[in-house]
């Protein structure tokens, strides 16, 4: 049986790297997209080939140039023999008050977090339709797809936009056997969030989160791997929040004042 071909953006570290490990364990052939850290991507490819006998190629993707990124996906898919799974994982974080945000930074965040994922998903969907064997598109958004955060104007807009794109594409692609879902993590212990590789989430206290800690990248990766599997073929258009209960806490800060006049 031909192994599924999966492309993961932001695969050199964090959630992306652990998603690659999870899909490699399921026998996928991998295309590991990276932004700047080519060495880490190549090291991961070697690790996966050694541990799982999985073919893993690395692919430089400049998500600040969405058109070029989509062209890179097409070339990589042609070389690999197609594409069955796209995981739009890469993204950047930014905090700036809306009244202080500038146009250039706004456009940069949207290019990387929204426009590139759109063009990559569009290119992958076209290939999947032509292949005629269905497919999976999984967009990694954020809990801030659903709830705002102070200073998150560009970031929250991009992530909520990607969440709505997920739903629209799910409707349009269902008849082709292609599912489209988003995974919305809360705080996750990754280098992007200032947590070095090797530091387990249980070592970090987060009293405001019901579970008391951030998430592990492996926990998010396991969810992505499930959505990429044949067992998830009836799930589409969903946004699966994986945040340790963080989003449940919206009213708690005000609870102490309830009943006061």
Describe the structure in brief:
By secondary structure, this protein is of the alpha/beta class.
What does this structure look like?
The protein is an alpha/beta fold and 261 residues long. It has a single domain, classed as NAD(P)-binding Rossmann-like Domain (Rossmann fold). Helices cover 41% and strands 14% of the residues. A 7-stranded parallel beta sheet has the order 3-2-1-4-5-6-7, sandwiched between helices. Strand 4 (85-88), helix 4 and strand 5 form a beta-alpha-beta unit. Helix 1 (14-25) runs parallel beside helix 2, helix 3 (66-80) packs parallel to helix 4 (103-131) and helix 4 (103-131) runs parallel beside helix 5. The chain is globular and about 65 Å long.
Radius of gyration: 18 Å
The CATH fourth-level homologous superfamily? NAD(P)-binding Rossmann-like Domain
Run of helices and strands: EHEHEHEHEHEHEH
User: Which structural class do you get from the secondary structure elements?
Assistant: alpha/beta
Largest sheet, spatial ordering of strands: 3-2-1-4-5-6-7
Q: What characteristic shape results from the CA principal axes?
A: globular
Contiguous helical run count: 7
Question: Which second-level CATH architecture applies?
Answer: 3-Layer(aba) Sandwich
The description of the largest β-sheet is: 7 strands, parallel
What's the count of strands? 7
The average pLDDT is: 95
Strand content: 5-15%
| The CATH class | Alpha Beta
Please give the domain count. 1
């Amino acid at each position: 049986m031909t192994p599924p071909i999966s492309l993961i953006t932001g695969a050199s570290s964090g959630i992306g790297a652990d998603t690659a490990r999870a899909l490699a364990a399921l026998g996928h052939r991998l295309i590991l997209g990276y932004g700047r850290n080519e060495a880490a991507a190549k090291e991961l490819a070697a690790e996966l080939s050694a541990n799982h006998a999985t073919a893993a190629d690395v692919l430089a993707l400049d998500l600040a140039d969405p058109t070029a990124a989509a062209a890179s996906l097409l070339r990589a898919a042609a070389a690999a023999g197609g594409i069955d799974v796209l995981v739009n994982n890469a993204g950047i974080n930014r905090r700036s008050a809306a009244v202080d945000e500038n146009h250039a930074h706004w456009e940069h965040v949207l290019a990387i977090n929204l426009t590139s994922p759109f063009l990559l998903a569009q290119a992958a969907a076209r290939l999947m339709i032509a292949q005629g064997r269905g497919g999976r598109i999984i967009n990694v958004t954020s809990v801030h797809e659903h709830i705002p955060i102070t200073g998150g104007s560009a970031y929250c807009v991009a992530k909520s936009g990607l969440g709505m794109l997920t739903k629209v594409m799910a409707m349009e692609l269902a008849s082709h056997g292609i599912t489209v879902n988003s995974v919305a993590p809360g705080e996750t212990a990754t280098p992007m969030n200032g947590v070095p590789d090797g530091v387990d989430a249980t070592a970090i206290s987060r009293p405001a989160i019901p579970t008391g800690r951030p998430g592990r990248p492996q926990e998010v990766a396991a969810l992505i791997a499930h959505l990429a599997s044949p067992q998830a073929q009836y799930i589409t258009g969903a946004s699966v929040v994986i945040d340790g209960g963080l989003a449940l806490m919206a009213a708690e800060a005000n609870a102490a004042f309830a009943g006061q006049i």
